[in-house]
Design brief:
Structural class of chain A: mainly beta
Shape of chain B: globular
Helix content of chain B: under 10%
Distance between the termini of chain A: 40 Å
Largest interface: A-B, 24 and 23 residues
Radius of gyration of chain B: 13 Å
Strand content of chain B: over 45%
Largest sheet of chain A: 7 strands, mixed
Largest sheet of chain B: 7 strands, mixed
Shape of chain A: globular
Distance between the termini of chain B: 35 Å
Number of strands of chain B: 10
Oligomer: heterodimer
């Protein structure tokens, strides 16, 4: 069965960086893209960006440009999201989600990771 | 950026009742690229509907989606206890991908 298993929660200080992993299993990793979505406490869903696991192409949300990097390791079927220069507003649960196309962002998210809580403290 | 506005913010209904949730877009969204998700506390979102009207695998036929252009609707025909949750619409027509603010369906 398809599974996306994310790394554990992190507590970071303002200005630091965090890297969250998302290990996929149960399907061919390079046949589907990965998007990252975050959810601040008590708030809605915010799309952060997308990566093609096929060719490494990325699209990032404009407001995160310059602070975010998405990568993949196809040998371990793992996607990564790194966010730098953390601020308190980055405190949120971060989700990876499978995108139903390998080479484009415009598909629905059919499977989601369990979420990773990132807490930014001052 | 396409802004999605969901209404109402909260829907108070009893089990067995019909729920009608609205998602309005600030500009036209191809119906091919509109999805609905359900989220329960402490859980990730779950895909319900994609392409505006296609049920995802394993989703009950109590859930149906409709609409086109800028107006989309999620209907839950008869609410079961497990349906009380928050529902989000999402467009994936153009970047940035966006979600609506959510509709909470609560027990009356």
């Amino acid at each position: 069965q398809v599974q996306l298993v994310q790394s554990g929660g992190e507590v970071e200080k303002s200005g630091a960086s965090v890297k969250v992993s998302c290990k996929a299993s149960g399907y061919t990793f390079t046949n589907y893209g990965i998007s990252w979505v975050r959810q601040a406490p008590g708030q809605g869903l915010e799309w952060m960006g997308w990566i093609s696991t096929y060719n490494g192409n990325t699209n990032y949300a404009q407001r995160l440009q310059g602070r975010i990097t998405m990568t993949t390791d196809t040998s371990t079927s793992t996607a990564y999201m790194e966010l730098r220069s953390l601020i308190s507003d980055d405190t949120a649960v971060y989700y990876c989600a499978r995108v139903g196309r390998r080479d484009s962002y415009n598909r629905h998210f059919d499977y989601w990771g369990q979420g990773t809580l990132v807490t930014v403290s001052s | 950026e396409i802004v999605l506005t969901q209404s109402p913010g909260t829907l108070s209904l009893s089990p067995g009742e019909r729920a009608t949730l609205s998602c309005r877009a600030s500009q036209s969204v191809s119906s091919t690229y509109l999805a609905w998700y359900q989220q329960k506390p402490g859980q990730p979102p779950r895909l319900l509907i994609y392409g505006a009207s296609n049920r995802a695998a394993g989703i009950s036929d109590r859930f149906s989606g409709s609409g086109s252009g800028t107006d989309f609707t999620l209907t839950i025909s008869r609410l079961e206890p497990e349906d009380f949750a928050v529902y989000y619409c999402q467009q994936y027509t153009s970047l940035p991908l966006t979600f609506g603010g959510g509709t909470k369906v609560e027990i009356k």
